[in-house]
Design goal:
The chain is α/β, with parallel strands linked by helices and about 200 residues long. It is about 35% helix and about 25% strand. Helix 3 links the parallel strand 6 and strand 7. Helix 2 crosses helix 3. The structure holds guanosine-5'-triphosphate (GTP) and magnesium ion (MG).
């Protein structure tokens, strides 16, 4: 849940990048960090990594003035995608305000995407939440590679049923689609917060 300090005019928002191992979550944060760090002096913290593998999580704080009159702090996290780190994934999900599910577009990784999405839903349920409660989008990553599944097929696997989420194609390695996805999830989260802050008229 977003923390809103009305007297100090500060809003804190937690965004989590979820998805299977090696889908490109850390690469997203590295790209965001590279693009904003010179302006905002923001530090990205990667807690325990082994090569490309995140063993705990990555964390990137971003300070913005996106909501007039408030300082809006984004706390952006990735989870470790490897199956056996579920306790950490669950912990990172605590208090989440917005989710970006980074799916790997490679044909060979479609089963892993499905399992990771199922795992995310299960972990949300453990906090009494469902995807309908949290702004959420899909990022179809690695669109630069040759052996990839068509978007329609990935939508069929990952984006059907009662919750149809927006989706963004990306190549996190070059940054294509990274800020469109971050901007979209930010707008969705802020839209929800503003709705909740609106005085009830009835
Ligand atoms: N070709 C290509 N490679 C990518 C892309 N995004 C990430 N990669 C590569 O995929 C590998 C894994 O990326 P990471 O960002 O570390 O993956 P992750 O999702 O954080 O993985 P875990 O920490 O294990 O959950 C790295 O070698 C990246 O350079 C992309 O869009 N295209
Ligand atoms: Mg990682």
């Amino acid at each position: 849940m977003a923390q809103i300090n009305v007297s100090e005019k500060v809003i804190s928002i937690k965004i989590v990048y979820y998805g299977p191992a090696l889908s490109g979550k850390t690469t997203n944060l590295q790209y965001i960090h590279k693009k904003i760090s010179s302006k905002k002096q923001s530090e990205m913290i990667s807690i325990a990594t082994e090569g490309d593998r995140t063993l705990f999580f990555d964390y990137l704080p971003l300070e913005t003035d996106i909501i007039p009159g408030f300082k809006t702090n984004f706390q952006i996290y990735t989870v470790p995608g490897q199956v056996h780190y579920n306790a950490t994934r669950k912990l990172v999900l605590q208090g989440v305000d917005g989710l970006v599910f980074v799916a790997d577009s490679l044909w060979t990784r479609q089963q892993d995407n499905v399992e990771s999405l199922f795992n995310m839903k299960e972990n949300l349920v453990s906090y009494g939440l469902g995807l309908k409660d949290i702004p959420y989008l899909l990022q179809y990553n690695k669109r630069d590679l040759p052996e990839i599944a068509p978007l329609e097929y990935m939508d069929y696997l990952l984006n059907r049923g009662e919750i149809r989420a927006p989706s963004v194609e990306s190549v996190a390695l070059t940054g294509d689609g990274v800020f469109p996805a971050l901007n979209m999830i930010s707008k969705m989260v802020i839209g929800k917060i503003l709705m909740e802050l609106k005085p009830k008229t009835e």
